[in-house]
Design a protein that fits this description.
Helix 3 packs antiparallel against helix 4. The strands form three sheets. This protein has a seven-stranded antiparallel β-sheet with strand order 5-6-7-11-10-9-8, with helices on both faces. A three-stranded antiparallel β-sheet has the order 1-2-3. Strands 4-12 form a two-stranded antiparallel ribbon. It folds into two domains: about 60 residues; about 160 residues, 3-Layer(aba) Sandwich (Protein Transport Mog1p, Chain A), CATH 3.40.1000. By secondary structure, it is of the alpha+beta class.
Length: about 290
């Protein structure tokens, strides 16, 4: 396995890209978008392929919206600076300074998002999971009786389809990528959010599915914590790595957890390290407490 890791690291370096993150059995590399097809095929040639998938997003509209917001914020701040120069009223100056400070913070957040989008456009992400031939982990996961829980994964797209539209308020520095039947978001430090749907079969309320996720996935992680976030029932997993990642899976239904509902909303959140968890968890909890379908 170590030899394969070296090969993957070399793959990223040769392409002009870099290693985004590396865990015990999962390596994420970024490669220039123009070399994605070549590097993807070379990655597939490193071993026996268990599964593969490719996901693309058009961020043109989101990038344009951010650019317009940035232009408006900067022009507004310039006008406020001019007003500040003309007034001697203490209260008015304080109010102008507060608004200038707010706009400055907003401008920095928008610039961060624009840089993130540019990075997303310039580099494609390739995630490679190394599974030792002698491990029983694959067999263990195959024994999970619920197909969609079996497919849950912190880094791969588990549930590609989103039925209906959702309402989730994230912090301003999250870049949100939305297209028909999907929702994805990412923060500058690499926290990633995915939302998908699955049929509520067999019928169960969100507490039942929360317990099922915790029970069936617990052995794959070092720690498991059950969280009650209002409408969303969640489980937070800590990986077994020396420097762990964290994987939060939340479950919601379209009728406040009632078992009669036929659709389950599944929220997956990947925190790349402890620093990201500490930075984002409280805000994520607040976002999920206000999660809704529309």
């Amino acid at each position: 396995m170590e030899n394969r890791k070296v090969e993957i690291f070399s793959l990223a370096e040769e392409s002009g890209g870099y290693v985004e993150s590396a865990f015990s059995g999962i390596i994420v590399i970024r490669v220039p978008v123009e070399k994605f097809d070549e590097m993807f095929e070379r990655g597939l040639g490193l071993g026996e392929v268990v599964r593969k998938s490719v996901e693309t997003y058009d961020v043109t509209e989101y990038f344009r919206d951010l650019s317009v917001r940035l232009e408006i914020a900067e022009k507004t701040r310039d006008r406020l600076y001019k007003l500040l120069e003309k007034t001697d009223d203490v209260d008015e100056r304080l109010e102008l300074l507060r608004e200038i400070r707010r706009l400055t913070d907003e401008i920095e957040r928008i610039k961060q998002n624009l840089e993130l989008i540019k990075k997303q456009i310039s580099f494609s992400r390739i995630t490679i999971e190394l599974i030792p031939r002698l491990t029983g982990q694959t067999e263990d996961k195959n024994s999970i009786p619920f197909g969609w829980i079996r497919e849950l994964d912190p880094l791969y797209v588990s549930l590609p389809r989103l039925k209906g539209r959702i309402s989730i308020e994230l912090e301003d520095d999250f870049a949100v990528f939305v297209k028909e039947e999907s929702f994805r978001a990412q923060s500058p430090e690499g926290t990633r959010i995915r939302v998908g749907t699955t049929l509520n079969e067999p019928e169960g309320d969100t507490v039942f599915w929360q317990e099922a996720i915790a029970f069936h996935l617990n052995s794959f992680y070092k720690e498991t914590e059950v969280l009650d976030l209002g409408w969303v029932r969640a489980v937070l997993f800590t990986s077994k790595d020396t420097k762990p990642f964290y994987y939060l899976t939340g479950i919601a239904s379209a009728d406040s957890g009632a078992s009669k509902n036929k659709t389950l909303y599944v929220i997956e959140i990947f925190f790349p390290d402890t620093a990201a968890l500490e930075l984002r968890l409280d805000g994520i909890k607040k976002s999920l407490e206000g999660f809704g379908a529309r």
